[in-house]
Amino acid sequence: MKRTAIILPILAIAAAIGLSALFVVDERERVLVLQFGQVKQVRTEPGLGIKIPLIQEVVRYDARILGLQSQPLEVTPLDDRRLVVDAFARWRIVDVVQFREAVGIEGVRAAQGRLESILNAAIREVLGSVPSGAVLSEDRTPLMNRIRDLSRRQAATLGIDVIDVRMTRTDLPEQNLSATYARMRAEREREAADEIARGNEAAQRVRAAADRTVVEIVSEARRDSEIIRGEADAERNRIYAEAFGRDPEFFAFTRSMTAYEQALQGENSTMVLAPDSEFFRYIGSDGMDLMRQGPAAPAPAETTQDTESSAGTPSPDEAAEPAGAVPETLSQ
Q1: Which CATH number is 84's domain given?
Q2: Is the pLDDT of residue 326 over 80?
Q3: What value does the mean pLDDT of the chain take?
Q4: Residues 53 and 94 in one domain
């Protein structure tokens, strides 16, 4: 019993020491085996490893791609227009021994601080060699590639490979935004005023062309209407002349009827004339006899009183022509 009680603790201690001598390397890790601070083993392949218990220790580093978001950095391009830039870098550890020697026991935290300093220096150097228009343009890939290459060369001394660098924000400082926006607004207003002026000029040209076309069309229409009216008047005079030559009495009768229609308009028309007035020649009972007798010499109308008529009623001398007289258009 006493021997068993002594052996069991010894076996347990030996088992614990034996297990502590084994370690597992994950495929996402890089492992260093250190002995009193000196690197004794480098394990980059996944699997099971062995170390000396209590003397050697295992230090693990992430083998995956890591990210680094830099703090906002103010840069001054060639045209002295200050800009605020944020950058994002992708990096990973490629040489764990060199990485351990460069950053010491602080590991990834110290590496990120030193890498951020390298990245900021590269951003200042690259962006300071170009105007602000190139930095603010949409195609900034060449600039980001230059920053990546410069950072990669400087970070190689840390055992780090910089895979990519991207600028996440490129903006003006807060104190310059108001002046920049005011300048941009003035530029857009000037462009708008130019567009409005060009539009008004084009509208004036279109309006002038339309007015000229209207004048030409109206002038041509008036000319054609005058020609048609003249031809119609000539045709009318020809018809009147032919009708008068065929039957002068019927022509005089027709003219008298037209004069009656024009003179006796409205519901209340009053005319005071002598009974034997030539104006009413065809209204009396002997009108048909007069037509059969033929046209007679017109007798002057004697007006016994002033003509009283409603507004717009023509006088007898203006409303009727003597029977048998030739129309004015024919006499011309």
Answers
A1: 3.30.479.30
A2: no
A3: 77
A4: no
The pTM of the full predicted model, rounded to 2 decimals, is: 0.49
* CA 264 – CA 287 distance, rounded (Å): 19
C-alpha radius of gyration, the chain, whole number: 59
Angle at 296 between CA 292 and CA 298, to 5 degrees: 140
User: Which residues make beta-bridge pairs with 29?
Assistant: 62
Q: Is residue 57 domain-shared with residue 91, that is, in the same domain?
A: no
- Asked if 66 contacts 91 with a C-beta cutoff of 8 angstroms, the reply is yes
The reported pLDDT for the residue numbered 297 is: 43
Tokens 């009396």 map to which residue?
Answer: 284
pLDDT tens digits, one per residue of 70-99: 888 888 888 878 888 889 999 998 888 888
Closest to 167 (Cα-Cα) out of 143, 150, 151: 143
Give the structural domain span for 84. 66-172
Beta bridge partners of residue 273, listed in sequence order: none
Sequence-distant contacts of 305-314: CB under 8 A, at least 24 apart: 305/272, 306/272, 307/271, 307/272, 308/270, 308/272, 309/269, 309/270, 309/271, 310/266, 310/268, 310/269, 312/265, 312/266, 313/263, 313/265, 313/266, 313/269, 314/262, 314/263
Listed in sequence order, the residues at least 6 apart from 301 whose beta carbon sits closer than 8 Å to its beta carbon are 273, 274, 277, 278, 279, 316, 317
Helices first, then strands: H and E counts in the chain: 10, 9
